[in-house]
Structure formats: structure tokens, C-alpha cells
Amino acid sequence: MSYSDTIKRTWNDNRMMSVLLELTYACNLDCAFCYNDLSIGGQRLSLEQYLELLEDLASLGVLHLSLTGGEPLAHPRFFEIASYARSLGFVIRIKTNGHAVRHAVAERIRNEVDPFLIEVSVHGATAGTHDRQTRVAGSFERLVANIRAMKAIGLRVKANSVLTRWNEGEIEELLALCDELEVPFQVDTEVTPRDDGDRSTLSIEASAEGMARYRRALEARAQLDGMITDTPSPADERKAVVARTEKHCGAGSNSIAVDPYGRVLPCVQWRVPVGNLHEKRVTEIWANSGRLREIRETTKAVGRKLEAFGEAGQLSRFCPGAAHTYEGDPLAIYPPAERRMAASGRARVRLTVL
Amino acid sequence: MSIVAQPPQYRLDPHARFRVMDDEGIFVLQEAGEVLVVNRVGAFIVEQLKTERSLDEVAEAIAERYEVDLERARADASALIGELVQAGAIAQT
Fold it and tell me: ipTM score here?
């Protein structure tokens, strides 16, 4: 038995395993490329509804729970929700900008939540770059101090960053900073449109040279660490992950997201409500939602479509949620995916043919 | 006055997370950042250890549930619990 076999089975059998809760869209930073649609309104879920939801998720066998926002710590009942989740045995990830996680808060998180991981957003290697993206002066210095405080009391911390035109010139320094802080570092190379489809955020997308520089930095690092020996192609790795399942991803099949207003979504990126917790419990939505059944069928259609593109499809890092946001169609080839397919060599010819 | 040694007690490690999924159980070892998958019997054993139990208590539960003899159940439970203690998934008290 392997864990990857288990994951594939959850996709195939529609077993909910991972849930992401957007607790609030409130935030103490003001990031230039934030994807949240702040125009969305509605009735926020109450504490009682969150506790009931967590009980339902535990009864469904959900293992992984991500608490995010906005800034999740800005939710006034964050600790009550998170500590209850702990008592129900979830593996908890907290996705935070880290700005509020000073020593006392870090200690509360460790003692009351015991998260598996705290993911913080590091947007640059310097105050100038980071603060430019967060639009809050002093946020870089405070984040670095808070990461040190979290590490000092034994919290597991990971740094996430979106590669942009503003930080692409200091990617090597960013890697070095994370080394110095002793935190793993993950870069998302794709700036996404806002959830309402607004593409203004794309103006700070990383340049082609910036992407190449990032790849070179990773390659140099991997060679330095002796990590590259006989590297399989990304396409091979992708094939291994999706082998024995018809679905392209687990959106709506083994995972959901829930926004602050109770809307249940197949994935944080695929913003199509499949139900609302103000109207039905999650157990009922999971079992009976027609929209959810459509989503599951769509992930199969995406799998078939990409299969037809061969290796280019595998290399596209296609996301039906992103396709929906860009084009209003989860099957549409959206610009970043098309660029990646084209970069794989044969893709553009196939795009024309198909 | 004589002192009677109490048998070791076992329970799920407070930092480990565990879920039963159909016919198997999944451990996430938070400290180590590792995942372990155990089979149906393993999942049953771990379920017993959500509250503190001795090896004999676990063996009795296995024997009753799976209709195997007590010695066999004890041997199986001992082997698995030993491995899980070693991995940090089960705590011995």
C-alpha cells in the first residue's frame, strides 16, 4: 500500500480528504496581486456553523484541513475554530501572511492548534520588494522576525512566494534568505486573475527572462545539493501521479473549499459554488449536489483533453479552475497553460491541429 | 509491601494524526513529516489506541473482532505496535 495509491482511490471513489476553509477575506496587508474578490458579500458562517462543519468533515473522514483567508488570524474566532479542529484530529495547515504571528500568537498556535505546517508568504528578499507587494511598510522586517519566533518555539514553517516582475530579479537572494531562516521555500510562477476575473493583477506577471532565471536558480541549487542524478521528465512524474484515474485532479472528488459566506466550491481556484452551508450541511452537498457531479465529470473531460495533447498536455500544469477564471470554461486552454504547452515544443502544432 | 509492575500502556501519539479510510488507516506523523498507511487490522488496532490500552487489551479486542486465537492476536499486535512506537505514531506510557 502506498499513500499515492490512497490518494488515487479518493479521486476515483469521491472520498473527501482535504478541505480548505477561507475563514475571512479581511487582511492586515494589501497585496497587489491578491486574488480574493472583495466585492463578494453575504452572511458569514457563525462559530456554531463552523463547529458543526468540522464535525461533519471529521465524520466524512477528512484528514487535511487548511485554514486560510484573507488572513485567517483576522477571523475573530480563529482560535476556537482551529483548536476544535485539532481536537477532531485534522492535519492542520495555516496559510497566513505571518504579519500577526508574533511570539505570543505563535505560542498560542503551537499550544492550542498544533498545526502540521504554517505557510507564510514571502514576497521578496528585501524590504523594498516585499513591502512594495504587500503595500504595508515594515511588513518584511516583521515577517522575518516572526518566522524566527515561530521556528524558535518549534513550529514548522514553509515560505511561499509568487514569482512576479518585482521579485524575479532577486530570486537567488530569496532562496538564500529561506536557507538562512531554515524554512522550505515554494514558488508559484503564475500570477492569477482575481476571483472575479479581473486581470489587472497580470501586469506584474514574471517576464520570460525572470522565469528562466528562476529555473536556472533551481537547477543550480539542485545540482549543488546533489539532487539531480537521473531526473525523470516532469511529464513522466505527472503521468505517475495521475495513473489509474480518469480524473485530471481531485477538485470536487477528494477536496472542497468553503468561502466565508458558506459557499462550497470544488477547489479554491475553481470558484463555482456547488452548494451553500446556510442551506444544506456539507454531508448532503457532498452526496447529492448535481453541480458537484458535473464538476467530477468535467475533471474526467479535462483528463481526456490533455491526454490528446500528449506530453505538452502533461507539461501544461493545466488547472480547470484557472481556465474557468480566465475563460469562463474549465476546458478552455488559457494563456499560461498555452504558454507552457508551447514551451514544450510540439504543442503549438497540436493546438492548431486540434 | 510488594510492588506489582503495571504492563506498558499505549496510545496514539498526541502529535500524530490518524484517519480510517475504508479498509486502511492513514497516519500523518507531524513531527517527522511522514505518512504511514496501515491495513485493515492495523487500522483496527490503532482505533483501539485512541484511548490508552495495554497490549493484552488490544489483543483481546483483535481476537474477538477477527475470531483468531489470543496468542496470534497478541503477536500481531505486538509487532505492529512495536513498529508504530518506533515510528513515533504510538506513544508508550
Answer: 0.84
